[in-house]
Amino acid sequence: MTATTWRPLAACLLCGTIAGWTAQGWRKDASIAELQRAAATSKSTAATALAQATARVLTLERAAGAALAQRADHLTQEQTHAKTERDRFYDDVRSGAVRLSIPVASSQCATSADTTAAAGNRNQARAELDPTTAAALDAIAGDGDDATRQLNACIDAYNLVRDTYHVQTE
Fold first, then answer.
1. Exposed, middle or buried by CB within 10 Å (0-12, 13-18, 19+), for 161?
2. Cβ contacts of residue 118 below 8 Å, gap of 6+?
3. Rounded to whole angstroms, how far apart are CA atoms 15 and 32?
4. Where does residue 107 rank: exposed (0-12), middle (13-18), buried (19+ CB within 10 A)?
């Protein structure tokens, strides 16, 4: 073949290559634009879902905080009431209006294996406690009661948070 026959063929091939390259570029640009639109849509959907989830968690957090504050107030009221009752009891013990006694085991009761009979005996010998000792024993019991109230409040708070946030424990 001569050079003059190759030239038109090369020109046609060059034009076809340029046309194919251009068409491929347009198709690539359209694919990129579609991917960008899909990414923008996904990003917008994710942002909306995040905003809704954040609002839901903040609502739960506020409700849990209010319930915990209410429980703390209730505990404070319980403790104040218990302290008032304990102070009234101390005053009654000190004034003699309330007298405390404990059973005293006689030598016969101490050797007896049947403690139910001794406990049921109303005529059992008793020893009266002096007011200071009675108040000290009641203070020990009061401290235990306070600790129990505080632990119950902790358990209530734990259960509240667990139930509010639907935490599964095992």
1. middle
2. 103, 105, 109, 112, 124
3. 25
4. exposed
Listed in sequence order, the DSSP H helices in the chain are: 3-95, 107-111, 115-120, 131-164
- Whether residue 97 contacts residue 146, with contact meaning beta carbons closer than 8 Å, is answered with no
pLDDT at 119 (0 to 100): 52
Tokens of 38: 């899909």
pLDDT exceeds 80 at position 68: yes
Identify residue 55 by its one-letter amino acid code: A
Sequence letter at residue 85: E
Threshold 0.70, pTM exceeds: no
∠ CA 29-35-36 to the nearest 5 degrees?
A: 90
Name the least confident of 10-14, 56-60, 80-84, 137-141: 10-14
Cα–Cα dist 60/161, whole Å: 9
Residue type, 28: K
